[in-house]
Amino acid sequence: MLKRSEDEDGPGRGPHDLRDASTCQDVLSLSISSTAGYPVGGTEMAPSVQYHCACLSSSPAPPPPHLPSSSSSFHPLHTLFFCEECDAVRCNRCVAVEVSTYYCPNCLFEVPSASVRAEKNRCARNCFMCPNCRNTLSVVPSDPPENSDGRLTVPISAVGEPPFFLYCNHCRWDSAEVGITFEKPTGLAAQLQKFEDSAPDSLEFDRLKEHFEPFIPAASAALARDIPGVSKYNPSQGDEMTEYRSRVDIATASRMGTGGGDADVEYMRHLETVSEVASLNQRWTSSWATSFQARDLKPLRIPLHSKRSKRCPACTHILIKPEQKAQSVRYKIKLVAANYLPAITVTLPHAQQAQAEAARRSLGKSTAAAPEDDRGGSGVGMHAGKTYPFHLALTNPLYDPIQVRLSVQRMHVSTATTTSADGSATEKARRPPFAVSLPTSSFPIAAFAEAWEYEDDEDMFGVDDDEVGAGRGGREKDGRGKVKTVGVLEKRANVTVVGGEVVIGKEARGAVKFNMLVSYTYRSDDPAPSEGNDGSPTKSTKPPEIKTFAFYTVVDLGLIIPREDVRLDSES
Amino acid sequence: MAPIRDKFTIHSKAIVCQDVELKGDITIGSGTIVHPKATIFAIAGPIVIGSSCIIEEGAIIVNRRKEVMRIGDDNLFEIGCRIESPTVGDFNTISTRARVHHTVRIGSYCVVGAGCLLVPTEDEILDDYTVVYGPAAERRKWSGRGKVQEADLRRKHAEYLREMLPKFNRLRRGDGT
Ligand SMILES: [Zn+2]
Ligand SMILES: [Zn+2]
Ligand SMILES: [Zn+2]
Ligand SMILES: [Zn+2]
């Protein structure tokens, strides 16, 4: 399949810079990746387009969008990969993940995997996190002793003296508050780890490990090597398991005040201010259950991050592979879907116009006015029984022009709602709540070109001056009837904007959400499957000049404001 | 309201850049540095700023009250902060984009973190060593450990600016000179 080559990224780089950044984020950050980029259900107001990955369904068609479970089949474009071998979209759910480097996000030290376990997945150099606010701590010497008169004398170029302690520049927490100081400013992590390792939970865990060691011979090795190997585990060998005796019995542990026992209850009874209790946020970053008294919080060694490679689940070809060095944000292999599929963004002109007006109104006000005020403003929602235009902007990432055809996936509303327990709801929903019109004929999108390849600005930005959403909406309003709402509205550079329309039923409620099939034809540059050295033949051996690729998306235009609510609004 | 009478008293050792907005009765002490694009508005009462303070770009200091707004020594007002407190002690840091209402009086060695809003409706006093931080403007008490080093750093910061700013900016002088 035709794709943009990575090597051609010149010094200025193209408009896909942003996309690069977002995929980096996804691959680089271990802890954030699972939530970043996914709009939280219900709170995200802006209309969105997400792309389908077929890994969860047996058919290539996606599940109906009104089923809540469908959300796990759709993903933002920047989180998806594209396997050239299979000619298919892959998502983070179906790819196979391998860790290629562990590193500390603070000092960028690459930690050899052998040390990762011994150092308990945290940086063993001088990187610490504030247990109070999670900022990075710095090692500072103590102040020289204060003068007897109490006035602050500032010696020029003050040289600090031991003891050293860890200090948070943000919330001014310091480790001396919890009695942790150091005679030398080096090797602090080792000292802290000794501390961690002597925690009762840690000792108990070590003992447990020791206890189970004989029963899992080689199982952990097999597990690490190959997941299917786990099934080979034969439990009959280890049936003579001795009874485990804990280091500390539960009653003693609870008396120590970590396990929610009487000691903790007693402590809570005598609480004076809430800040005496460490918040959940402050406690769950530590490896072991800790006391929930804020004054017991210990500095934390910074958890390691990893860089990961991902493989296609079907053909095991690598889809993304970062460069080994922690400092590098480049990739050796990067087959992201954004380089193959057109990017689609959806906008509602009427909502944009309302927002622009609200922004103009709030501009005069003081900066204190919260932007949240505009949320749910009168113009933004879609009312039942009305018709709204919407715009789809499609951006071509390929170096060749493409021809795109859009179609709405038919919804089997009747079958979908029979499962509904509520009788009246079923009856209401039998009529489709809304009808979507899209351009029926195919339309072209010009090839991607680097910014400097355009002769002048007009080529790049188009001749229309309606770049701003408000302007575009305005045009719609003035010339209703004259200006077409369904069809190609605008072409500039490698972006084509098409208009669609949604007619919302009188009794409709819920979200305007529909599956859209996008198919596009492109000129194939590699006629013979010369790259397929693994012997798998591609579909056609004859060199076809034109190929077609199709994929599903879900378009979410937002919630319908039902009739009843409108009445209530107007009464109040 | 009567029109504001401008009266600027700037110590000869203060560094006040030409491109600052001053309005009303303002006194700026020795060694204090006012970056370009800073704003000091004595709308109602006068503003008196002590010595060796640093007021960065876009910082806004406003006195809405009739009484004198007194700012002590060695305070740091970072970029884009806005402060209307009637009194400010010494060695405080008001971080970037923080906002402090006229209902808050600030002691000494306090830190108002980046972007924190301190806008209570009732009058209150920030005790010495109060730290306000984080998106929820949480508060805690600083032990004061490390303050000598921080003060030392503040002095060096000011010293550097006193040397560098006049090389690239025209300075404002007080009415007296
Ligand atoms: Zn998938
Ligand atoms: Zn580190
Ligand atoms: Zn902190
Ligand atoms: Zn594949």
From TrEMBL, chain A:
Keyword Cytoplasm part of the UniProt annotation: yes
Lineage of source species: Eukaryota, Fungi, Dikarya, Basidiomycota, Agaricomycotina
Domain of life where this protein originates: Eukaryota
Key word Glycoprotein present: no
PANTHER family: DYNACTIN P62 SUBUNIT (PTHR13034), DYNACTIN SUBUNIT 4 (PTHR13034:SF2)
Region (Disordered): 1-20, 357-381, 523-544
Protein name per the record: Dynactin subunit 4
Subcellular location: Cytoplasm, Cytoskeleton, Microtubule organizing center, Centrosome; Cytoplasm, Cytoskeleton, Stress fiber; Cytoplasm, Myofibril
Quaternary data: Subunit of dynactin, a multiprotein complex part of a tripartite complex with dynein and a adapter, such as BICDL1, BICD2 or HOOK3. The dynactin complex is built around ACTR1A/ACTB filament and consists of an actin-related filament composed of a shoulder domain, a pointed end and a barbed end. Its length is defined by its flexible shoulder domain. The soulder is composed of 2 DCTN1 subunits, 4 DCTN2 and 2 DCTN3. The 4 DCNT2 (via N-terminus) bind the ACTR1A filament and act as molecular rulers to determine the length. The pointed end is important for binding dynein-dynactin cargo adapters.
TrEMBL record, chain B:
SUPFAM superfamilies documented for this protein: Trimeric LpxA-like enzymes
One MF annotation (Gene Ontology) recorded for this entry: dynein complex binding
Compartmental location: Cytoplasm, Cytoskeleton
GO cellular component term of the entry, any: dynactin complex
InterPro entries registered for this protein in UniProt: DCTN6, Trimer_LpxA-like_sf
Presence of the UniProt keyword Cytoplasm in the record: yes
Gene3D superfamilies the UniProt entry points to: Hexapeptide repeat proteins
KW Transit peptide (keyword) present: no
GO biological processes: mitotic spindle organization
Alphabetic keyword roster: Cytoplasm, Cytoskeleton
Main localization (coarse): cytoplasm
Family assignment from sequence similarity: Belongs to the dynactin subunits 5/6 family. Dynactin subunit 6 subfamily.
Function comment: Part of the dynactin complex that activates the molecular motor dynein for ultra-processive transport along microtubules.
Record-given protein name: Dynactin subunit 6
Native source organism of the sequence: Lyophyllum shimeji
